[in-house]
Amino acid sequence: MDHAQLCALPAQQLLPGFIRTIYCQDALATLEETGTGDPLAGLTPEQLEYIRQLIIAIYEGRAITASYNVLIIGIIAVFAVLHWREQKRDKQKWTAIQQAGARRTTTRNSEVDGSGTSTPSSSSLTTVVQSTHIKSPEDEVDVDLERLPLLRNSQLSNQHLSHHIANKLRSFLLYQPPPIPIITRVLPSNGTSLFILAWLALNIAIQFYRLPLKWSFFFIFADRAGFLFIVNLPLLYLLSAKNQPLRRLTGYSYEALNIFHRKVGEWMCFVGIVHFISMLLYQFVLAEDWLLASQSPKAYFTHPLILFGIGAFVSYELLFFTSLGSFRQRWYELFLALHVVLQVAALGFLWGHFYTSRPYVVTALAIFLIDRLVWRMSIKRVSMEMDLTVLDGETFLVSGDWDILPEAKGVLAGWEPTDHVFLTVPVLGRSHALQAHPFTIASDAPGKGLEGEERKRHAWFSLLIRAQFGNFDRGFTGQLLEYAKMHKRVEVQLDGPYGSPHALSILRASENVILVAGGSGIAVTFPLVWALLHEARSQPEVEDEDEDKQVLPLRKQKKGGGRKVHMLWVTHAFWHQRWIPKEQLDELVALGLDLVMPKSTMEAGRPDVRGIVGQWIQEAEGDTSVLVSGPDGLNRVVRNVAADAVGHGKGVRIAVEKFGW
């Protein structure tokens, strides 16, 4: 391969930066100035062969790394299919529960008065219901014990052992270990941790697959680390999208996806450091003198390609440090501003630094713009005047109500339980007009859209907001609280709703539902309980009066559409229980809710959450779904109670809704 072939390859932009821009361009300039011959003419055949092998290895490594996103799409497709199957099963179970709740049958366990009507019990009490089994004709068939297979007990034992192992494995995956000591870093569940480790193993395998393990080819290692950073860009921006498509495709909660988003960002920052240091090491320590046009640090660091790379490196590292939980909690507004500015700057620097990165930069930018500009601002964003109500020294409501109209858009067209919106309050200042803060909708959900133009519905909307206090100022929520103390109404902009129906789907598909709220986590659990119990009340009643058939006894009819619904609400102060009007809680209790509200932790300390939730799970007949929304400690306790029950053979599913700054 001569000089012309080396510097004029069809895909010459894929050549190493230092070879193409420093060697080729500088060498050509020297040729023009001096009129000398080919600068490769003095190289030995071994040196020319080394350059050829280096370029081949670079092409091969980038082809291998480019397959990463194909694998990611395949993994997402597998999770989407599994989620679709789960949704299908949940819908079938929900339909069966609805039919069981709507059918009125005569049971032996019902207390019947003289007129033939059931005697109602107090709706605020939890009723323990017995079930009776009536032998069917099949039960009466005589069994010849001598003809039973000798290995039957062995087969049953093997089945029991396999079920036991499966339950223990599920329990292990659900279990959440305690925080890391000293730094008190919260760890996710074992299942989430193993998935993240598997993803990291995939990245490491791509980094080292067919990598020449020679110091003379160390540039390949550095180059592949940089390209590994590039190919993760679309995944990082997809996970950061507020209108989260992966949440709908896979059914994973905000908590799980947000954890994965942060791990992708941390890994990218790590491989960025590896790429940066490795390039410097090769340039100034490992590279042969004949390969480089100049070893001058000034010439190297002032080259445009290197300057763009340093700009991208600094931008993404700053993104990482400003995204840490400690920084977000103290300076959330600054975090929001820097997140937008640094992302745009980083993509621009990356565009100039690495030619091969440009398709990935365009993809990431498209995801960012579609999510932030086209969808969020032009389609879902609405402006309206809302009421402000101060509940206590740290908590207030932003509320409003309206009729849902056929032409309504965004939140004005309704929402579903657990949906959230992004709130902007321009009146607080010029900078606040550019800020959008996420809050869960704390009121009952009217659904989305209208079933017909003749049907009208009214939406009652409220956001339960607790002021967050930074080190130097009161932040957005603190300023809005001060404004609420002096004003009763405010003009706001609402962006949304956003969310996933996954949590409601798994609750609907269970005969027993347990919801646990910690403090403002009631904003998540209250709409879910309201939806479960009110949709059960609206079910049509079905008579089953076939006199020709024997009616088999069923379990005593439960309120709540054939399911038992429990809710535990733990509050820090007694006045926090006023966040939800007592009339609404009484209405839910009347519909069948088993509500437990212990004394506040300020008065009586932390309640026995493990014992309460554990007893509910043990007493449950049939499958149980658990949802918890609260601080990390409460979420971990409830998750591990469910994991322990699964290990002992109980059918339990759990969803965790975690929201934070």
From TrEMBL:
Instruction: Cite the FAD-binding FR-type domain residue spans from the record.
Output: 357-504
Q: Where is the composition biased (Low complexity)?
A: 114-127
Task: Report the principal subcellular site.
Answer: membrane
Give the record's GO biological process terms.
copper ion import; intracellular iron ion homeostasis; iron ion transport
> Which Pfam families does the annotation name?
FAD_binding_8, Ferric_reduct
What topology does the record note for this protein and the membrane? Multi-pass membrane protein
Task: Name the segments for region: Disordered.
Answer: 98-127
GO CC field: plasma membrane
Parts of the chain that traverse the membrane: 66-84, 191-209, 215-239, 267-285, 305-324, 331-351
- Name of the molecule in the record: Ferric reductase like transmembrane component-domain-containing protein
Q: Where in the cell is it found?
A: Membrane
The UniProt keyword set, sorted, is:
Ion transport, Membrane, Transmembrane, Transmembrane helix, Transport
Q: Which GO terms describe its molecular function?
A: ferric-chelate reductase activity
Instruction: Name the InterPro entries on file.
Output: FAD-bd_8, FAD-bd_FR_type, Fe3_Rdtase_TM_dom, Ferric/Cupric_Reductase, FNR_nucleotide-bd
Q: Which organism is it from?
A: Triangularia setosa
